[in-house]
Amino acid sequence: MECLHETLAQIVPADPAAAQRARKRWDSIAKPLHSLGLLEDAVVRIAAMTGSPNVELKPRAIVAMCADHGVVAEGVTQTGQEVTAIVTENMSRGDTSVCCMARVAGAELVPVDIGVARPVTGERILQRNLMRGTRNMTQGPAMDRETCVQAIETGVDVARSLCRSGVRLLGTGEMGIGNTTASSAVTSVLLGVEPERVTGRGAGLSTEGLNRKVTAIRAALERNRPDPTDPVDVLAKVGGLDLAGLTGVFLGGAACRTPVLVDGFISAAAALCAVRLCPAAGDYLLASHVSAEPAGQMLLDALGLTPFLRAGMCLGEGTGAAAVMPLLDMALAVYDGMATFEDIQVEAYQPLT
């Protein structure tokens, strides 16, 4: 397993010269300057990530980290913990929302059992279980620091393996009943914001359930006192195996100079952990959408990312990442295939000052 410190040392800032060449290509295309907005910006950023203006985004994969959370014992979810295992196995069968969307997007879905509470079966599931779910964080740390580091390194290894197999674009996703509670706790600590401001209803909590969720987060923070300057400490004490694994996927993608799509709230919380561990990792992130969860926009602001979509989505699983992949394909269709001003013998647009 790749050592976390070695991975962090291998992450370099994106290449501004490649970005400049990609922007020059866009500006030569026979259309008004910058008229495709974020789509142009994304291709330019991807060129900088890979170090080449010749951008390729296929093959592609969405990594879904699956894990359970002991905090569900506090009544913070509408459904029981058993749902995590059921949906993880359904992912292997191609029978969840993200599976349907990934097929349209031409992406391989890679479900990873990093911490599901019971053994799961399925040919497509990567068996990487480190714990049968985290402990109840209101009673003590969700996991020990060593296990948290192993979970991050597991995510790194999954990302590296996919990149070495030729994957040019990674998406992130997750499955874990209770993971919005852990994500809200992590976000509260890293952003220095009260739990009430970053905690939402998740998969359909009542007002009473939401109050229990906030109370549980407050109890966990009071009991564990996570260090906001140490993302590993935060993840270990009030996070989850799925969050730690996703943190590793972002770091592994960055180390391989491969763009990684941030999905929604949970994915963005993990992305912030990755960037706090290694600021240069932020150069390799693309925001798919802004989650409808209360902290969705806060996290993207902290990451300095602008989402492609504002669609009111809050499903998770990687559905936002899948939804954006066809948009990137359309951007590349223009970038690679459209005539230039020189080709059609028309005077090029000039930037106005």
From TrEMBL:
GO MF term list: nicotinate-nucleotide-dimethylbenzimidazole phosphoribosyltransferase activity
Pathway: Nucleoside biosynthesis; alpha-ribazole biosynthesis; alpha-ribazole from 5,6-dimethylbenzimidazole: step 1/2
Signal peptide location: none
Enzyme type, top EC level: transferase
Enzyme Commission (EC) number: 2.4.2.21
Described purpose of this protein according to its UniProt entry: Catalyzes the synthesis of alpha-ribazole-5'-phosphate from nicotinate mononucleotide (NAMN) and 5,6-dimethylbenzimidazole (DMB).
Name under which the protein is recorded: Nicotinate-nucleotide--dimethylbenzimidazole phosphoribosyltransferase
Species of provenance: Candidatus Flavonifractor intestinipullorum
Gene: cobT
